[in-house]
Amino acid sequence: MDKKGRALVSAVLLAVLSGCGDSTSLQGGTTGDPDGGIAASCRGPFTAYEPPVVSRRETVLSNIKVAMSDGTLIALDVHLPADLDGPLPTIVSITGYGKSGPVATFENDGFTDHGYALVIVDDRGTGNSGGDWAAFDARSQADYPELLSWVSAQPWSNGRIGLAGTSYSAITSLFAAASGHPGVAAVFAVVPAGDTYRDSTFSGGQLNTAFTPAWLGLSTALSVLGTSEPQPLVNHLLGAADFQLTTLASAALGGDVAYDGPFWRTRSPLEAVDRIRAPTFVVGGLDDLFQRGEPMLYERLARHVDARLLIGPWAHTSAGGDLPSGPVPSLPSLRVQWMDHYLKGLETGTDCIPAVTQFYRGAEAYRFADRWPVAGLQPQRWRLGADGTLTQGPPLAEAVGSRGYVQIPLTGLCTRSLNQWLARGSLDDAPCTTDQRVDELGPLTLEYTTAPFDEPLAVNGPIQADVWVRTTSAEALVSVAVSDVSPDGTSRGLSNGLLSASHRATDPQRSRMLHGVSIQPWHPFTREATQEIVPDEPMLLSVEIFPTSFEILPGHSLRVTLAPYDVPHALPPVEGILGSLGGVVEILSTSEHPTSIALPVIVDRD
User: Fold this and answer.
1) 3-state SS string over 37-91?
2) 582 in the Ramachandran plot: left (φ > 0), alpha (ψ -120 to 50) or beta?
3) Fewer CB atoms inside 10 A, N or C side of the chain?
4) Span 109-120, mean pLDDT?
């Protein structure tokens, strides 16, 4: 039998053997639907999909140059399964970290082994590609459909293309799919950004000083290390001095980059995903850099394409690192299963992959649902009392009043947030992540804690803190952290949010409402929307706390911590630092100005 005949037999066997495997019991807990979001014919979530390896060797066509419409040469490597003849379904990954480097190697985990051609591209202005790098700008995005057309025309490609990648290459995968190229049949995006301004770079109107400068430097370093030709090397170094330094200076000094607008919208996949027509799998993490945007990407995609969402207990550089865990297969297995179905037309059991899979802190379990936001949510309002209590209902007399802090950039140094924004590999192994009491007990922080719960409290989605403040200074800063307090006092960070008072304006039409209660405020973050701070006049700051999923177990308490700064994670532009430094902020807890948080609580299910 020739190679084509063997490939046909292999495909038939895969189609027969694939499908829904044995069910796996849901780990622990009482909320969520163990069969949520999967087909009725499935005996449980996910499938045991183990396709045979069809090629154990690969051939690499290195450093091919493809001319773009403006004459710029883009470099790419082609990985082909040496034991198969073309044409083959093709995976494309576009990276800014060097197509031949260690980051790109991860993109080939299982693809050529399972009969795919793999193309790894140096994005414009990186690696051996020409042009100037400008972080997902319009010219770079214009390259993507041109590259996909080139791939489709090659003899080793059958024209059916899957886009796959992690972080940078997950973002480019979404932009490439949004180009509308007809060859795109599926997308698998691991830890992509949604809204680059709000997700990470300028959360709450403050510059991400922990991650953004480090990422720009890392991008340059990895790109330079991946450059083997003199001219691109010189261009990349000059480009770094131009784009990166100029962008950082504008952000720090309060220039146009410090505000939301065309610069950021062009670089935000959430602005483009409505144009995607290919089935898309999004993987996110509870502690990921893009924790905010990942479920929102899925939410938008699920309106018009077959989409899946998997959120695990990961930080950015460890996404999927603890898989397989319970019923959830490894990410390489899921990627091949997704691509085999949509690129090869095999019945691989994708119907048995839940629409939404989320890990719940506290319960330490994966739960499944057929949508995000999940069904059965009700808003719960919890008031922050001046006596440090966190309660439902009207405050007691002793809880009425105010508490205050001085705005000094010393808070946030020993928290979950610190490790999240330093992109640590595993937050569970990082100091202060699983117990941030050192930071909470500092003189500049205010803690508000519930009594221990008698029944579990399950929360899923974004959280809104409505904080009434008055200040003596020209700027007021509020950082909000939510944590799970164990009976022994350990305080495990769950999620965070922050806001500069000058950016307190909200757009009710774009804010997320739950039964008439806002749980995710939308701030314009434009120069025009900034508001003046009048000293000693009460102001309402609606702070967006990023989406999460957790369960407070019986005997545990919920804690909200307020502080002025979250350093080294974030600092406002220079004017905001100077305007806030040393000022006193009062947190008001009165009937007229009731500081509170709104939680999306699971009270029932479909």
Assistant:
1) CCCCCCCCCCCCCCCCCCCCCEEEEEEEEEECCCCCEEEEEEEEECCCCCCEEEE
2) left
3) N
4) 93
Residue in 139, 590, 115, 31 with CA at minimum distance from that of residue 365: 31
Burial category of 387 from C-beta neighbours within 10 Å (exposed 0-12, middle 13-18, buried 19 and up): middle
Please tell me the distance from the alpha carbon of residue 235 to that of residue 227, in angstroms, as a whole number: 11
Residue 215: what pLDDT? 77
The token duo for 206 is 């403050």
Tell me what pLDDT residue 165 has. Answer: 95
pLDDT-based confidence at 236, cuts 50/70/90?
low
- Say which residues have a Cβ less than 8 Å from residue 8's Cβ, sequence separation at least 6: none
Confidence check: pLDDT of 474 > 80: yes
The tokens of 524 are what?
A: 């314009």
Give the CA-trace dihedral at 266, 267, 269, 271, to 10 degrees.
-20
CA distances from 140 to 74, 266, 313, 417 (A): 10, 11, 32, 32
Q: Exposure string (b/e) for 501-512, b if CB count within 10 Å is 16 or more?
A: bbbbbbeeeebb
Tell me the pTM: 0.91
In sign, the C-alpha dihedral spanning 278, 284, 290, 294 is: positive
Question: Who's near 558: CB < 8 A, 6+ residues apart?
Answer: 382, 390, 449, 450, 453, 457, 482, 483, 484, 485, 552
Helices (H) and strands (E) in the chain, counts: 14, 25
Cα–Cα–Cα angle for 111, 117, 123, nearest 5°?
95
